[in-house]
Amino acid sequence: MNLLRRGLLNGFDRAEALLDRVFTPVHNPLKQLGALGTLFFAVVIVTGVHLYIGYDTSVSGAYGSVEYLSVSAWFLAGVARSLHRYASDALVLVMLLHAAREFARDRYRGARWFSWVTGIVAMLLVYGSGIGGYWLVWDELAQFIAIVSMEWLDWLPIFGEPIAGIFVAPDALDDRFFTLLIFLHIALPLMLALVLWLHLQRISRAAYRPPWRAALGAMAMLVGLSVVFPAVSHPPADLARLPAKLGLDWFYLAAYPLMDRLPRAATWGGGVALLILFTALPWLPPLRRRVVAVVDLDYCNGCGRCNDDCPYNAIAMVARTDGKPFETQAVVNPGLCVGCGICVGACPPSTPFRTTVDLPTGIDLPDPSLKDLRGQTLAAAARHQAGGPRVLVFACAHGPAAATEFPASVTLPCVAMLPPSFIDFALSRHLADGVMLAGCDSSACYNRLGERWTDERLAGKRDPRLRARVDRARVAVSWVGRQSGDEFRAALSAFAARLSARAAEGDKR
Amino acid sequence: MISRIVRWAAQLVILAGIAAFIGALSVAPAFTYRPADMAFIRINFTHGAPRAECWRPTQAELTKLPPSQRRPNDCPRERPAIVLRFELDGVVLLDESLPPSGLSRDSPSPIYRGFSVAPGPHRLHLAMRDNPRTKEYDYTSDFDVMLSPQQNLVIGFDPRSGGFRIR
Ligand code: HEM
Ligand code: SF4
Ligand code: SF4
Questions:
Q1: Minimum distance, in Å, between the CA of residue B100 and any CA atom of chain A
Q2: B26 part of contact set with chain A, CB < 8 Å
Q3: Virtual CA dihedral for A275, A279, A284, A286, nearest 10 degrees?
């Protein structure tokens, strides 16, 4: 399992690094897969409504109405049909990549299981909707889908007589069936919309909308494809003949040749086994130790910052229970918490300047705790290499190894766990000449919002802010992925060079 | 840093590549469901063999049974299997006993079976026995057909219209 994941991860890392350079990290399609999925789904819905208006739900009329829409009708209807098809195909493409990427990036276990499992339900609904859509066209491809689907379902001993029978004899099929099909083709996407809403329930500020330039690029691609290569039908279905050569849409129908050629027991068994395996992935080994944030009411003043910053909606503000003169207090839902520590970095009492030994704060992780962070900061400061300016690195565990393995470094589950006061602490206590925050990949934060909150806190736009007295020239940040150790090293040397130049200037003065 | 123009060009190339990938995979590679130079015969119907006669024990027989089983008549729910034979141009392609369906084996026997055959003239011989006590076939039919390539000939069965029929 680990091997498979590592292989996938390396692939994604390489491809993302390449596309970062072409599209910039913010517009990198591989970092926007979920959001592109919602965009494509929206395109499918809008064009689908347009097509529905012209669709004829009868055996004899279905094919003709789709042909009319795409060939004779208004130019836009033809493009709408092509867009409907290609956006559906693009949806499958980004959906599969998105699932593979969340798996590769190890973002499917622990509290994230819910997104994973609802994602699988969404995937089934996408396939159901798409296959139903091809069926509605009632051309030779649809006939093939109908026969193979029904023969496949007939393997289950639930129907008294073979239901495939109605698709092999011309007189057995009636219009009611098409009414049922179009009902399903509308009901399944509606269910999909509901499941996608559920899919995003456990995360806050979900990135369901791509940045507008990425959206524009994706739309331009779909429209271009629709105009250059419009979607067409096969010849009309004819139950007195069996189709021969078919242009399959492999995004939706890849399983159909197997369902037709392999023994039913094998395809049913294999299909069900795969589904169970994928659904159970979050609970399969290698298991991970779970770390969950804990609130200490003695230090919580109910400010709500943790609630605002938590990327996983794991913190609720509830009425005070301990009689302190505050209105609310924070409560962690352990089932939702992924242990990123971002809340620790947000909590006002989280500062290393205090004299208490245990450094208690309003909300803390058991490991590493705020106390551990201060201890590790002091220990790292004792490991500065001789020569050159002394740079202290706070490194995200999901960033490049060059950062986490740097001698004078402290590794955190997310750089946003670091309260900005630690930077002030390191510089004002002369623990370092400069502080570098080394996060994970830009626009691909493992804990979703860590990059955003860190940048805003340092820029003084979000509480807790980095104090104004801190010399910004002695602070640097780096957002590069696991594979980009060289870029991290380059940024570190450049930072060190700037610090040296300043020191030399200071000496001259 | 790559220059702006190179980046734009690269974006265009990548988007066009993805579009080409989507467009291509949405219709190709082609898949051949059934060879275009063959015809097909499909036997598809359900037929329930009549249930066996009820057993009506005499008074003497009844008294021999344990009291809990003394019923004036015993009508089986189960249907017998049907026997179906299909010959194409004198070659036997099917000669099988088809069991009834349903958990208590009381529903008709379904058959859904396909045969790939060369196009052209063919003689079909069909025979079915739905009564386990007879040795004779209860229904037989012969059809002379001319099959064209890709034709899908369906053999059905309807006892009310006299037995086998082709569509
Ligand atoms: C119709 C298809 C889908 C759409 C439109 C979609 C969309 C999204 C979006 C917008 C997010 C939020 C990203 C963020 O803000 O960080 C997300 C997260 C997620 N998706 Fe999907 N998704 C789809 C299918 C799937 C599938 C098939 C899977 C896996 C089986 C999956 C697994 C996940 C996981 C695990 C997360 C959570 C990531 C995290 O917790 O950090 N999704 N999805
Ligand atoms: S560690 Fe804190 S911020 Fe992170 S998920 Fe848990 S409660 Fe939310
Ligand atoms: S940030 Fe700290 S003080 Fe504020 S509500 Fe959360 S736990 Fe309480």
A1: 10
A2: yes
A3: 110
